[in-house]
Amino acid sequence: MRRVNFAILNVAALLGATFPARSQSGGELCFVLRSEPKTFNPMLVDDESSETIRYLTGGVLIRVNRKTQALEPELAVSWKISEGGKKITFRLRDGLSFSDGTPFNAEDVAFTMRTLMDPNLHSPTGDSFRASEGSIHVEVPSPRDVSVEFPAPVAALERLFDQVAIVSSHSPKKEAAVLGPFSVADYKSGSYVLLKRNPFYWKKDALGRSLPYLDSIRLDIQQNRDLELLRFRRGEIQLINSLDASYFETLAKEAPAAVRDVGPSLDSEQMWFNQFATAPVPDYKKEWFHSANFRVAISEAISREDLCRVVFSGHARPAVGPVSPANLFWFNSSLQPHAHNPQDALHRLQQDGFRLDGHVLRDAGGHPVEFSLITNSGNKSREQMATMIQQDLEQIGIRLNVVTLDFPSLIERISRSFDYELCLLGLVNVDLDPNAQMSVWLSSSSNHQWNPEQKAPATPWEAEIDSLMKSQASTTDQNRRKRYFDQVQQVVWEQQPFIYLVNKNALAAVSPSLKNAVPVVLRPQTYWNAEDLYLAPVRPGGH
Amino acid sequence: MKMIRKIATGFLGVMFLAAVFAEIVAPAPYAKQFREWPNAPPSRMHLLGTDELGRDLFSRLLYGSRVSLLLAPAAALLATIMAASVGGAAGYIGGWVERIVMTCTDLAMSLPWLFLLLTVRAILPLNVAPFSSLLITFMLLGLLGWAASARVVCAGARSLRCSDFVLQARACGSTPYRVLVRHVLPNLRPVLFAQFLTSIPVFILTEANLGLLGLGVSEPLPSWGSLLRGLENWSSVQANPWRLAPLVLLVLVVSGFQFILPREGLAE
Question: Which residue in B120, B235, B240, B243 has the most chain A C-beta atoms within 10 A of its own C-beta, making it the best mutation to test that interface?
C-alpha cells in the first residue's frame, strides 16, 4: 500500500502539481472583475469580464494550452480538418453531462454551431469563423461524431474552437447549463458574480479525484486598481491579473513571493504617422511621413531600452514588430528592435534632404521639423513614454508637441477627421494567429490605421503585405503560413508604418495561499488552469 | 496674529521671488530627464528627489510655482473682474436687469462645462507650444469661473443699493455710474478680495483636472496641477513621501493668502 502511495506521489511530482488533502475543501477563490460583465451568453461575449466567465464556465471542444500554446483535446477526443480547411470533423468524449445533469452529445455541438453562425445573432465569436458569405453545413452521423463545413476555407480553424463554449440543445436552463469546471450560481449587478463547482465536470486529477478543487470562485466587480491592490494586501482577494508595473514594484517590496513577472506579453505599444491622402496636414509634412527613411530615423532616435527601464521599471522589452516574442510560433526571431542611434538617425534624415540648423532640424524646403503626438489622457505610462520620446527627438533637433486627448476625441481624430500627425496607442493581442491581425494589415481595411480603406494599395510595400497576408490566410500548411507572415514582419520592420516601442511584460500577483498557480503570458494569465487551483493555509513565514 | 501675518507675507514673498528667479535657483532644467535616477529619494543633487522620469522635483516645483503663482491669480483676477462687472451692475440696477443677468448666471453654472471643454479641445489645433497651451488653459479658467462669484457679488450689491450712503449720494445728484464706481464697488472690495483669493487654489486644482482632458499645461512644462497628478497613485506616494511636496506647498501658499487677508474681508 505504501508503495502504491509512493507511486502516486511520483506521478504528482512528474505532473508538477500538488493536491489538497482528501478531506480538505478547495476553498473559495476571490478576485476582481474590472467591469460589469455584459452578458452570460457565451456566444455574445465581447468584453473581458464576460470572457472571464465564459472561460471559467464554458466547455470547449479544443483548448489552447496557455502554457505550451499547443492545442489540446477537451470535449473532443480527436478532430480532423479536410477539404482544404473548409471542413472539420470531431470525435466527442462519451458519457459527459452538463452542469444540470443533461447528457452531452453531438446534437449539442451542432446546435451550438448553427446558433453561433446565425447572422441574426451577431455573435462576435461567430464572426471569426466567417471567411466568406454563405451558411455552414453541420452533420451528425452519430451521437459521438459531428462535422462542420464552412462555405470557404478558414485559416487556423481548429484554434477558433477555443472560444466556442458548447451549449445544450435540450436543457431547460439553456446557456446556464455548462460543461466547464464552474457554473454561475449567483450574480448581483455591480457587486459580484459567484461561480460554484460544476458537480458533473468530467476531468479527474492524477489520483482520480474530480476536478475542480475549488468549491467556488467569487468575482467582485471593482474598477479601482488601488482598492484591488489594497484588498490583495489584506488577503481578501488571492490574485491580480495584469498588474501595472508601478503596483508590481510596490507589492514586490512588501511581498516578493506574491508577484510574478512572466516575461513579454502579447500586448505592444506603438505609434504611427498619419499617411492618409486627404488628411488636413500640410503637404510638406505628408512628404516626411510618407518617407520610410524618415520613419526609420524616428524609430532609431527613440531609446526603447530607456522606455522599458524608466516607464515600466524594467518590466517590458523593446518591441520588434507586430508579433511579440511571447508568441512562440509566429515571432520572426531573425529581426531585432531598431537600436537607439541618434547619429544614424540624423544620417538617414540627411539622405532625405534634412539638415541640422543649430538645434533645429529643417527639411529641404527650410521648414523646421515639428509635429504633434496624440495619445489618450489618463494613461500614465503612455504619457510618460510620449514625454521621453519628446526628449529623444529633441536630441536630433525635432520639436514634438505632446497632446493628450480623451478617448472619444482621439478616436474621432484617428478614424474620422484624420486631423493628427502622430498617434501613440497600444494593441491588446488576444489571439496568437496572424489571421486576427488581418484587418490591420490589409490596405483596404478600416483598421489599417496609418492609411485606411485604400481602394488600391498606395505603395508597393503595402501591396506586398496585402499579397502575403492573403497567401497565408489561404493555406492550411502552418510552415508555409509562417514563411509568409515572417515576410510580413520583415516588410513592417523595414518600412515602420507602425513604430513598435515596447512589449509590456505579463505581471501578476498570486497569494501564497493559492496553490498550483502558474501565471503565463496568454490570457487569462493567472487562472488559465482554474480547475487545478486550490487554497491552502499559509504556514507562518510562508508569505 | 501680526507675527503670523508677517511670516505668511515673508513666505509668499520668498515663494514669489523663487518662482520669478527659478532659472537661478533651480539646480537643473525642469525638463531634463536624469534617466539613470528615476524616483530617486532626496539627495544633495536632487533636494526633493526625482519624478518617475528622473526629472529634478525641486526644479519642477519652482518652475511650476511660476506657472501657478502667476497664472492662477491672473485667471482669478479675470474671473473676479467679470464677476464684479456682471454681478455688481445687476445687483445695483436690480429689477428685470438683475433677473435676466442672474438667469444667465444660473444657466452658465448649469451648463455641462466638461463637454464644452472637450469640444474646445477638439477645436484647438494640435501644434500648440506648451506656453501657448498654458495661456489658453488659464484664460479658459478665468472665462468659466466667474458665474459663482457673480452671484455673491450681486447679493452684496443688492444690499448696498438700499443703504443710507447710496441713497444720500443719489439725493446729492450723483449719476448711477458714479454711485456704482465710487460708492458700491469700493464697498464690495472685501467680497471681491475673498472671491479672488478663494478662486486661486480652485483654479490650480482645476488646471490639474483639465490635464486629464488634454487641456492642461502640456509636457514638459510643469505646473502645480501636473505635479499634483503625481499623487494619484497612493501606493507610490507611500513609498516616496517626498512626492507630497507640491501638496504641502499648495497648502502653505493658500494658507499664506488667508493669513494676509484683511480680517474684515474674511468676515464678509
Answer: B235
